[in-house]
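Task card 7
Instruction: Convert sequence to structure tokens.
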Amino acid sequence: MGLDWNYGDGQTALEEEEKDGLKIKSICTKAQLDAFEQIGIEEAILWSMRLQLTAETFLTESFVRKVHKKMFGKVWQWAGTYRKTEKNIGIDKWLIPTELKYLLDDTAYWITNSVFSPDEICMRFKHRLVSIHCFANGNGRHSRLVADMMAEKLFQRPIFSWGSLAYSSPAQQRAAYLNALRQADKGNYEFLIAFARA
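Output:
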């Protein structure tokens, strides 16, 4: 494909076989790809608004995969399937199902036992999900939507603003987001919680 791929800080590069999974062959610029992906994300948000979820239905491998497919399935053939390649971020590909199961079980325990505040549970879940890096691409956007759904559906809390109220430029917002993720990598979730509500 003749698409010029420009990867920014914190973005995951696609392998050639993953690029070949593009369903819309007429896309020829990164801006066009971003626009088509955004349409899918907005459709997934509308779909999520109609859902009635419990922790039992939400905290499943099939639901996590379904959300990704809803977001990116009209653009990518591999949407909703675990990545088959190693990336510059994330765990080894063969560990994805096991680590995701651990995360789902841990989160169920946190909710049942009120181990953390609702916002911290959402951020811990989001952070570990993006750290696992289940999919070839879209992991950050996917983990943010899943965290929004968790806040709204399981805790009856407002969805997160993800820095949109505090930062005037997308570049500043992204830099703050990546810094918050790096702090969470060290076990400090305060920055990620504050960013998500900023």
